[in-house]
Write a structure and sequence with these properties.
This protein is an alpha/beta fold. It contains seven helices and ten strands.
Length: about 240
């Protein structure tokens, strides 16, 4: 993988290129899009992923404290609770991190199977929901996960991220889907977007990487780096705070 911007390099250390800022909470999103703007191919974001994208995906998880994802996306994409990876073990020990990132599932309906592979990882899965969710379902999931209640009628994403940080999970990696990312952006919580542009045309009416109400004016973002391999582009954008 080569770096095109801000300076050219033939080889890139992904753990250096995507290192989190030190000493502060940082919310990063990782999304993939076709050249024509679709966030899915045949209904799944995984349909747009290639080998290089999978390496970036693994590196971003290897650096994160917690992976934040919508429960629907986790089901469609076949998520499992993260496991420790030998390639990142020393790096995580040096950073004072747990062996693997925790998985945080955002859901209002709590329609999750406690026996699914989403639970039972090396770190307890976290279920993020609202107070209006079914108390019996919360109790059932509390047997296999840590349940965070944030918000009354709907999940308060900003509050949930605060609660994660209170647990020492300050390096947040949001993997979507597009509707959850829209809520993260609308709440003012997003610091960085890592966007893979897959060399593919999809067509159809698939979602963009961000779905939801229009923002109050476009967000200003700076291109921190641009990587390339086999025609796929890997852009890292940092949001500008005013």
């Amino acid at each position: 993988m080569r770096r095109l911007l801000p300076t050219y390099a033939e080889e890139v250390d992904l753990t250096v290129a995507y290192a989190y800022p030190v000493g502060r909470r940082w919310v990063r999103a990782n999304m993939v899009s076709s050249v024509d703007g679709s966030a899915v191919a045949e209904g799944r974001s995984g349909g747009l992923s290639g080998e290089a994208d999978k390496r970036v995906f693994a590196a971003l998880r290897g650096l994160a404290d917690v992976v934040l994802v919508g429960a629907g996306t986790a089901r469609v994409e076949g998520y499992r609770a993260p496991r420790p990876k030998d390639a990142y073990a020393d790096l995580r020990v040096a950073a004072g991190q747990r062996p693997a990132p925790a998985l945080a599932l955002v859901t209002s309906r709590l329609d999750l199977d406690p026996a699914s592979p989403l639970f039972g990882g090396s770190e307890p899965t976290i279920v993020v929901t609202s107070r209006s969710s079914d108390p019996a379902a919360r109790d059932r999931l509390a047997e296999v996960a840590e349940v965070i209640v944030a918000g009354e009628e709907h999940v308060d994403i900003s509050g949930a991220i605060d609660r994660l940080a209170d647990r020492g999970l300050s390096r947040v990696l949001c993997e979507g889907g597009p509707r959850l990312l829209g809520e993260v952006v609308a709440s003012g919580s997003l610091d960085e977007l890592c966007l893979t542009i897959s060399p593919a045309l999809v067509g159809g009416a698939g979602p963009r990487v961000l779905v939801g109400a229009a923002l109050h004016g476009p967000s200003d973002i700076d291109l921190a780096h641009l990587l390339e391999e086999d025609g796929a582009l890997f852009a890292r954008y940092v949001l500008t705070r005013h």
